[in-house]
Amino acid sequence: MLKLGSHCSMKAPDYLLGSVQEALSYGATALMVYTGAPQNSRRTALDKLNIEAAHKLMAENNIEKQDLIIHAPYLINLANTKKQATFDSGIELLQIEIQRSIGFGAKYMVLHPGAHVSAGVELGIESIVKGLDIVNQDNNELIIALETMAGKGTEIGRSFEEIAEIISKVKKPEMLGVCLDTCHIHDAGYDVSDFDQVLEEFDAIIGLDKLSVIHVNDSKNIKGAKKDRHANIGDGEIGFDILQYIVHHPKLAHLAKILETPYIDDKPPYKEEIIALKNI
């Protein structure tokens, strides 16, 4: 079965149950949520989020728990060595998010590696490694999937080599994976029109066994623009045919593919995009 879905909202009163209902309304077989608002640290207690009812509805509709993906909040920046308070608060919030994600029954949480804010890539990577070692010290359940980034500003993770370096330096590499974002790697300069070659390069540098989640997005930018502006499927520089090829790639069949495309006229486009991508 094709594992294809989108980001879904999670709000009162139905919370996670409502997220699953939203996903099903799109014809999705996977979904991604935040455990709370991505721009702040306020969180609703797990026992109020209808998690058990959500799992029941998922099971009734053949959505596996591993295809419920959590995205970490944007507030977290483990690469920041300029402000200790930013690093410390990121650690605290990430530790909370790990426990919440486990409470959601999730297997994967997507995390932006961070931005070095002018300190340099190597110092940023050292800081990310330090932070991941702290939060994973007692984590033996949740895989943190480092997201490939577009290279905007001082983002770390714009190349497979940077992500591979992080994985190679942490104490528990088995607790790390990778989220491959099609818009981001395109904007970072990878030629996704030759996606088989991109996968070969990924395998050689990181290893396909580390690939955990796919973000399926078109891009408003030319290859290598380093801007990170998502476009709707088929409306951007990557194009429908390439994204459909990626979605149906046999080496990715076991992975959840998550759409993060822009709303159209204030409405989610996911139902139409999922139908289009499913048809081959």
Explained architecture:
The protein is α/β, with parallel strands linked by helices. 36% of the residues lie in helices and 15% in strands. It has helices at 16-25, 51-60, 84-103, 121-135, 160-169, 182-188, 195-205, 240-247, 270-278; strands spanning 4-7, 30-33, 68-71, 108-111, 143-147, 176-181, 211-216, 218-219, 230-231, 256-259. The strands form 2 sheets. It has an 8-stranded parallel β-barrel with strand order 1-2-3-4-5-6-7-10, surrounded by 4 helices. Strands 8-9 form a two-stranded antiparallel ribbon. Helix 1 (16-25) links the parallel strand 1 and strand 2 (30-33). The chain starts with a strand and ends with a helix. The model has no long low-confidence stretch (mean pLDDT 97).
Number of strands: 10
The major β-sheet equals: 8 strands, parallel, barrel
Strand share of the residues?
5-15%
Unreliably modeled segments: none
Distance between the termini: 14 Å
* Mean pLDDT over all positions: 97
